[in-house]
Structures are given as C-alpha cells and as structure tokens.
Amino acid sequence: MTIDLKPYLDDPQSGWPQGGTSLSTQPKYLAIARAMSRAIHAGELIPGTRLPTHRQLAEQLGVSVQTVSRAYAQAEKMGLIQARIGSGTWVNALDDNRESAYLRAREPHPETAIIDLSIAHPVCPPSHHLRFRQALSQLSENLHPEVVTANRPIAGLPHQREQASLWLTERLGMPGEADDRVLCNGGAHALMLAVSTVVQHSDLVLTEALTDHGLIALSRTLGFQLRGVPIDERGVIPDALDAACARYKPRAVCLTPTQLNPTGATMDEQRRNEVASVLERHGVWLIEDDVHALLEPTKLTPLSARIPMQSFHITSLTKSTVPGLRVGYLTVPRSQLHHTLPRLRATSWMATPLMFEVAALWIEDGTVEDMASAQRELLAERQILAAQILHPLPKMARPSSLHLWLPLPGGWRADELQQVAEQEGLAITTSTPFMVEQTAAPSCIRVSLGAEPELARLEEGLERLAKLLKDAPPPMMQMVY
Rounded CA gap, 417 and 318, in Å? Predict the structure, then answer.
C-alpha cells in the first residue's frame, strides 16, 4: 500500500530536512518513526493497516532501505507497529492485549541524547585517560622482558604476584603470601574461577536476596542452584544466613560485604564478625566479592581475612580506576590452588601480563590511591547532586557509591518506568536483573551515577527522572474483551 507521510515530515518540528537543505535536527529514521506516530494519532493510519515494504517506502521518501528498516524497528520499539513473519508489517491493533507505548509515553529523544543511568561504571574524566596513556608510554621505554614472552606461570608473573600480595595485605588487610594470589582477567573472571573450584553442577549456593547479575548469569552457565538470603542496609542478615545454612547445607556462600550491587548495602565490622562466625560454625566455603573496596574512604577488613582457610577473596581495580584496566586479584586457600589453576589455564591460560604491568606501576607509584581518592570525591559530588534533585524521595546509597537504590513512589512499576524513561532519553535499571528468587520484584530502580563523564548530562538525566516520578504513572492503554 501507499502511505502519505509527507504532511507530517513537512512539519518543521519533525527533524526532516526542510527546503532542500541536507541539515536535520535528528536522524532521518527517527523523523520517519515520529511521522508515523503522528499519522496514527491523527487517524490517517488505523490499527490493522498493512504497511508498505521497506523498499517501497524507501522509494516513496527517497531514502535508503536501511533508513526505513531502522525507522520500522524504532516504530515497533515504540509500540506503533508489529512485524509478522510471512505477512508483512502492520499498525498495531487495539485488541491485541498489549500496552502501546506510543499511547502512554512522550516522543523519544534522539538516540544521541540517551543519558546512561543504567550501568555501574566509574567516572572517567580526561585526566584518567591521560594517565592511562602516560603509563603505556612509560612502560614502552622500560618494559619487563617477561611481559612480552610470558606464557607461564599460569597464576601470573612472579614479580606481579609479589607486588600484588604486598598491596593486598597492606592496603586491604587480606592476609596471604604471593603463592596464594592468582591474577585474573578482571573480577568476573576471578568469580568464575572461585565458584568453579568448589561448586559442582546442581550444588546449592547462598547469596544475598538481591545480588550482582553476574553471579546469577554464572549460576545458569555452570548449572548450580542459587538461593537468596534476606538483607538489610548492612548486607546479609546473620540470623537469616544461619538459618539458611542449617536448612539448605549449601556448598558455598557468595557475598558482597562492601557496596552490594544493587542496593549499596555495606557491612560494618560488627556485622562482618557476626557473618564470619556463622560461616565458620557451618564450615561452608565463602566467596567474597570485594571489588568496591577502594571506594570506601574507611578501610573495612574483608570477611575473608577472618576465615582465610575457607575463603576466596576477589578484588579488582576496574571500579576504582578505569574500566579498561581488566585486572582481578583472587586469593585462594592453599589447599585449593591445585583445583583453581587448571580452571585458569582452561579459560584464559594466564591473565594478560601487560594489564598487570600497568597495575603494578600504578600501585607502586601511588596512582591507584590517587585515582581511587579522586573517584570517591567525584562520586560523593554526584551522590549529593542526586540527593538534592531527587528529594524528598527515599533512597539507599553510600556517600561514594557508583549508584543509588531508589524505591518508586505511588503506583509506579519499575518496568513501566523503564519504558517511559527510555522515551525520555534515559537508560535506567530495574530490580529484575538482580533477583535471585522467582518472586515479585521490588518496586525499585538502580540509578547509576558514573557512566556519564559530564556532570551536566548527569544533572539533566536526574532532573528528567525526578520530573517523571513527580507525576502519577500513565494510565494503562490496554483493552480487554
């Protein structure tokens, strides 16, 4: 069929090139999708109408087939149309029992305007990029010869492990010798190695009721069972953990005592002592995710330091320096090294020596501490900004956390807010990816504060979010027969 979008594209607000000029305020495919939205609202395109093929519409508008394909994809994402295999693309019918996003959300911002509040990411100002380049330049002039030729030891080059061990002991308070440290390609790699060392297929593992989605994905990959334990603002609740250990007899317990993702819950020293006592009494393996350790201004002794013979301790520099520095440090009980190292060899042979040479340089000259301190200051500034803009909404957050945990006000569902926020040019994360049990998800979102390097863009994103939450949620545009 032929559809006439010209009146809607001729609107100066459409973003379509006007008057023969090639300049436009947004990509052509978005202008086409918005024109389709206006045509539907105006009654020009009625539900159940079959749309022209991509090629036909491209010829009508004088654009490429790829542009029309992207326009159709955007329109389907907005809830305007539906592609049906073998029968073409159709305007959504009102009786298909779906909530049409275009009826309950505003027009989308251009893709280039998306403000990312969704990913847990450290702030990366230009100075961080400059330091990384300077480190690579410095190493090029005086590179340890083994960095280029190494393919063993599997656990990492001796000088890198020695230096890492000293730093882990002095800075984090994690006891051990160089032989107990294994170098990994980031914290996620270390987590996989630790879990697979002591957990077999179908074994049961306990963790926080809300936990990092990487552990949930790992449980599905390795085939072990994951069960959540209740938490509060100080992390896992000792009595609940004690009861769960007694009832389920888990093979291991995976915990994040410092700045739990997504809530930011952090155990104080008393809570750590209580949890360690529970684990020791039950004789269960502890796998501690301590990747946020450097984001806390006050040193907190790892859980693993209290029960080192039954603990795997994981940390990295990714969250406190720059994400591209994929270095993970895994402290392994000496009795389990012969199980961990074959798994390291099978997954990456050995961790990339060059990245650990950068890390070693930065640890030795104090750059890691400088960057971690700067990160804490940058995040504290952003947490204050978020508290001001989102006031009086309640929230959970640490002063120097990568994100905050925001319960939603009256009537809002997290998945609905995520959809509407996307139309407003915001990317946010709901509680669903962090849910261990298949139960009703908390009506909360995680708002990340580090992914946008420019403070002005973060402020704009937070103001958009605050404006959304001040209004009641849009009505459900769903018809049931």
Answer: 30
